[in-house]
Amino acid sequence: MTARLLGALLTVLFLGLFGILEATKISCRSEEGEAVDWFTFYKLPKKQNEESRETGLEYLYLDSTTRSWSRSKQLMNATKSVLGRTLQQLYEASASESNSTAYLIYNDGVPKSVNYSRKYGHTKGVLLWNRVQGFWLIHSIPHFPPVPEEGYDYPPTGRRNGQAGMCITFKYNQYEAIDSQLLVYNPNIYRCSIPAAFRMELIHMPQLCAGSSSSEIPGRHLATLQSAQGQKFLHFAKSDSFLDDIFAAWMAQQLKTHLLTETWQRKRQELPSNCSLPHHVYNIKAIKISRHSYFSSYQDHAKWCISRKGTKNRWTCIGDLNRSPYQASRSGGFICTQNQHIYQAFQGLVLYYENCN
């Protein structure tokens, strides 16, 4: 065998192995099905008037390859939506019953159930990973997603109000830290599969998956995470023993910034803006979609916050807890970033906010 032929065979072998490795890389996906480091979405509320042609399935989208919001041409219930594309990897992994892939789906509002259990955290999300990498989708949508064998769909209960979420691609070496955060979360897991290959490094998720945990749960825990392409994140997780507003008592003070918060402001269940501590928390009261389009916080089930304009530390956080006296006793958390494109996108949505009395 000549050296040239041997070199050609080695090249083909290398490319074949590289292709197999690339195919195993689970990641957040764009609407075109391309792998992205992260994305965030904002599902718009359904307008409550007969003239509106909006369905409650339209959404804004921003990912690591773009610089500002774009209005999706897909509807959120479409398999080619950003969530449909990303979760397709979950359905394929579940169908193959592979021992090299793990997943975990949690929501305090389980699909096809009208009950919400206060026994678990007010948390909603999906994790899918192998020993190369995976994604963590954090969102605010009740009854979502369906169990894997039913395929992708979007619940009718998620149409009326605004919803938001974020997907981040992580290398496998980040999952040990995520494992500890989920212990604090105490999520209501309704479908999971964690093969034995992952159980040496990941202690808590297999226990949570089995419906038990022998570990002592801290009141709160802050983790530093890094996406597959190096974007840094902070993740705040509080348990139900941390009996306080996560925004005012912890996040604003930890991030050293005044926060504008957008959470579901149900009547008689909201907390007022808080200026009693060094770093203040203000309630956003209206969201601006365009020059002539806006909606009230009462129509918004999303949970996010940003640093107030003009402050030095410009943070954006997306998560699953409301500013409500009833949620001080619920576990949950927020993923935070100083990415300037994300900050500018969310800052541009703020129409006005409530000052302190």
UniProtKB/TrEMBL annotation:
Entry protein name: Deoxyribonuclease-2-beta
Subcellular localization(s) per the UniProt record: Lysosome
Example of a GO cellular component annotation carried by this entry: lysosome
Chain's role: Hydrolyzes DNA under acidic conditions. Does not require divalent cations for activity. Participates in the degradation of nuclear DNA during lens cell differentiation.
EC numbers on record: 3.1.22.1
GO BP term, pick one: apoptotic DNA fragmentation
Species for this entry: Bos taurus
Reaction(s) catalysed (UniProt annotation): Endonucleolytic cleavage to nucleoside 3'-phosphates and 3'-phosphooligonucleotide end-products
Gene name linked to the record: DNASE2B
Family in the record: Belongs to the DNase II family.
Pfam families: DNase_II (PF03265)
This protein's UniProt keywords: Endonuclease, Glycoprotein, Hydrolase, Lysosome, Nuclease, Signal
Domain of life: Eukaryota
Entries under InterPro entries matching the protein: DNase_II
Endpoints of the signal sequence: 1-23
Enzyme class: hydrolase
The UniProt record lists the keyword Hydrolase: yes
GO molecular function: deoxyribonuclease II activity
Regions crossing the membrane: none
